[in-house]
Design goal:
By secondary structure, the chain is of the alpha/beta class. It has helices at about 20-30, 45-55, 70-85, 110-135, 150, 160-180, 195-200, 205-210, 225-235, 235-240; strands at about 10-15, 35-40, 60-65, 90, 140-145, 185-190, 245-250. The mean pLDDT is about 95.
């Protein structure tokens, strides 16, 4: 299905080389958006995805930056604007668990790393993007949060879940501040999605336990998340929706 008001938009997607971000890059390019495909360390994956999008007739700009620090988050936005000449949308998808650590054992260094990657990156990238979105006459910001933001997470993922709870609430605050400028801010909260995220941070036993809690009977895949992002990016489909978190989880959390 083509969504007419996404075509021609300049959209920066952070953390777009693998997993949900890669699925979003493909989907937005297929809708005719100019995609800023951000990556950090996954150089080969990013280049291969950019080649795939270009071969399919899409428009893409590769953007390398380290989102775990403010300078990198600002640089990602600056590079996107330099490539596009404008910015119509920002998807703050970059993030990660960094490591599993129990609260009892968590150090200030653990806090800094996890919060910088998942929370500071959203604040800084959004702050850098807002003037450009205003200049474009409005646009959208979509933040990727997590089911862990509501259920407290577990198995040492509590700090990660807390960082994502921060993102969910920042989404609401930004939505109120920015809607007078025609900038719609919302979020998507994936549940258990079978991506490189869990390959890195979850054991087979942990994955089995998480999937067992899903009424739909399976882990999600990256493509399961795409529709929610496209919906929130389209003013035609979601123009009166702001400050919302769409839960994409197969049923274990029904707020």
């Amino acid at each position: 299905m083509q969504i007419s008001d996404i075509a021609g938009k300049a959209v920066l997607i952070t953390g777009a080389s693998t997993g949900i971000g890669a699925a979003l890059a493909r989907a937005f390019a297929a809708q005719g958006a100019w995609v800023g495909l951000h990556y950090n360390a996954s150089v080969e994956a990013a280049k291969a995805l950019a080649d795939e999008i270009t071969a399919a007739g899409g428009r893409v700009a590769l953007i390398q930056a380290d989102m775990s620090n403010g300078a990198g988050a600002r640089a990602a936005v600056d590079k996107a604007v330099a490539a596009f000449g404008r910015l119509d949308g920002l998807i703050n998808n970059a993030g990660g668990m960094v490591r599993r650590v129990a609260y009892e054992l968590a150090t200030e260094a653990d806090y800094d790393e996890i919060m910088d990657l998942n929370a500071r990156s959203v604040l800084v990238a959004s702050g850098a993007a807002i003037p450009h979105l205003k200049a474009a006459g409005g646009g959208f910001i979509i933040n990727t949060t997590s089911i862990a933001a509501r259920n407290g997470a577990g198995g040492g993922a509590g700090l990660y879940g807390s960082s994502k709870a921060f993102v969910s609430n920042v989404t609401r605050g930004m939505a109120k501040e920015l809607i007078p400028f025609g900038i719609r801010v919302n979020a998507v909260a994936p549940g258990v999605i079978d991506t490189p995220f869990h390959e890195r941070y979850s054991t087979e036993a942990q994955m089995k336990a998480m999937v067992a809690s899903v009424p739909q009977g399976r882990a999600g895949v990256a493509q399961d998340c795409v529709g929610a992002f496209l919906f929130l990016a389209s003013a035609a489909l979601s123009g009166y929706i702001i400050g919302q978190v769409i839960e994409v989880n197969g049923g274990p959390l029904m707020p």
